[in-house]
Amino acid sequence: MEIRDRILEAAARVYALHGYRGATTRLIANEAGVNEVTLFRTFGSKDSLFEELARAQPLGVVFDDVHWADDATLEALRDGNVRYREKFGYVFLVSATGKTAAEMLALLRARLAHDPDTELQIAAAEQAKITRLRLEKLSS
User: Where do the domains of the chain lie, and which CATH numbers do they carry?
Assistant: First the structure.
């Protein structure tokens, strides 16, 4: 696997566990088995890495276990996620197990209307659900 791909996969895992703010470039580099200099040479910045990850794996990072959807729905999810990150400063988090892409799109659109404090509370609760599910998968 190429270094770029290793860093992208590591970033997906670190963002999923720590959220955008908690995902440091050091954590991502360590997870990828590279040093931070390599990460910065490859992507330039944490923001550039995140944007590349959103383009390369828009649903793998943001939505866990998404059900397949038509191109229009997937594009709306990508666009909505970009708007969400611009508004709130972190990736849209949703515990997506059992939800269709259309259901997640509806949640994303509804949550874009929230104020930052309300959304932070909701995102933290979603992150807790995601982390709990992943820890349960690891321990089984």
Answer: 1-56 (1.10.10.60), 60-140 (1.10.3330.10)
